[in-house]
Amino acid sequence: MLYAILCYAHEETVFAWSKEEEAAVMERLYAVQEPLMKAGKLGPTGRLMPTTAATTVRKGKSQSDARDEALVLDGPFAETKEVLLGFYTAEFDSLDEAVAFAKDLSAVNPGSSSYEIRPFYVFHPGEIRAGEITTTDSRTGEGGSS
Predict the structure, then answer these.
(1) Among candidates 11, 50, 7, which has minimal Cα distance to 29?
(2) Would the pTM count as exceeding 0.85?
(3) What CATH architecture does domain 2-51+82-145 belong to?
(4) pLDDT tens digits, 61-91
């Protein structure tokens, strides 16, 4: 089954890391991810930009009228200290296997964090054209386009 592992942490802590701290965390995370990569079970992973870069589209509470206008708001619409900072997608044989992976991620990530695990279905696998996506090597923190 496919699972999404949603990573929540205090963004002011994560985005305050020095390049050296970031590289050390990424190296530890890479070690946790590597067995899944080698088994061909690790899907896309990513870190979200800070909530200051977020935009939220929110529709009113009225569920009776689909014509209600959606509002566009700067920033996330959450009053919480921990925010969604990133995600993993992977194929696991069981929920226990997904939980073990999330525990391994937690063990190598400094500070307070939580990992929400949800099975998911792929409605459309999508396609990203070469040159339109920026990637970061999890071991070096250096970016590039793919």
Answers:
(1) 7
(2) no
(3) 2-Layer Sandwich (3.30)
(4) 655 555 667 667 776 655 556 788 899 999 9
* AA identity, residue 9: A
**Domain positions in the chain:** 2-51+82-145
For every residue of the chain, which 3-state class applies, written as one string? CEEEEEEEEEHHHHCCCCHHHHHHHHHHHHHHHHHHHHCCCEEEEEECCCHHHCEEEEECCCCCCCCCCEEEEECCCCCCCEEEEEEEEEECCCHHHHHHHHHHHHHHCCCCEEEEEEECCCCCCCCCCCCCCEEECCCCCCEEEC
Any idea of the CA torsion for 118, 107, 136, 38, to the nearest 10 degrees?
-70
